[in-house]
Amino acid sequence: MRGHAHLVAGYRAGTSLVHRTPLWLKAVLLLCIAVLCFSAPLLPLRASVTLTTAVLAAVVLAHLAAGLGMARLWRAVKPMAVFLGLIAAYQWWQHGPGVAWQVLAAIVATVLASTIVTTTTPVDELLDGLGSLVRPFERFGADPERFSLTVALMLRSIPFVIGAFNDVRDAARARGLERNLMARSLPVVITTVAYARQTGEALAARGLGE
Fold first, then answer.
1. Three-state SS sequence of the chain
2. What is the mean pLDDT of the chain?
């Protein structure tokens, strides 16, 4: 099925400065971007718009500097296009164009920044970083390795389910059943359950099932 071999915002190898930046620094910069964007409304409108515009421009430049290209940038924003349009229209109607742009720029900048982190960092390194975040909580019973494994399974499962939906949709359309809810949903459920069972059996065989 399509998409099954790809991770969400999959890693793209490269030698750019962004790729070589340590994960901890990327995480700090991502946090700073989020704080700047979502604290901007506390400033006067002109300053808020200027700040979020500057942050968005910096993120776009970082995206291009990483060699990811405009096509991948659009791919990151495209799934949110309708949502962003509705948010912008509502904010424009309620508060005017300045606030609408500020909110839009803040959301896009944060999403693009997180995409840069996941696209320029190997998955193993991301999982190790997540494990390091959980490690201080080991005294409370947290298991960093199990947590990392859970995230890895999630990253693998989401594309699988998306691929299942796409394949079943195309098969139903080819049979003239695109309006048949059962024909579009039941095969996805069966495929997903089978995938979950196979994953569980594989984990159990390696002593990770409990």
1. CCCCCCCCCCCCCCCCHHHHCCHHHHHHHHHHHHHHHHHHHHCCHHHHHHHHHHHHHHHHHHHHHCCCHHHHHHHHHHHHHHHHHHHHHHHHHHHCHHHHHHHHHHHHHHHHHHHHHHHCCCHHHHHHHHHHHHHHHHHHCCCHHHHHHHHHHHHHHHHHHHHHHHHHHHHHHHCCCCCCHHHHHHHHHHHHHHHHHHHHHHHHHCCCCC
2. 77
> Which residue in 115, 85, 79 sits closest to 103, CA to CA?
85
117-145 pLDDT per residue, tens = 888 888 778 777 777 767 777 777 666 66
State the Cα–Cα distance between residues 158 and 196, nearest whole angstrom: 12
pTM of the model: 0.68
pLDDT bucket at 152, cuts 50 / 70 / 90: low
**Residue found under tokens 């340590």:** 22
Coil, helix or strand at residue 13: coil
Q: Quick: pLDDT tens for 15-59.
A: 888 888 888 888 889 889 988 888 888 888 888 899 999 999 999
Q: Contact 68/136 with Cβ under 8 angstroms?
A: no
Backbone angles phi, psi at 143, to 5 degrees: -120, 100
Domain ranges across the chain = 17-121, 135-205
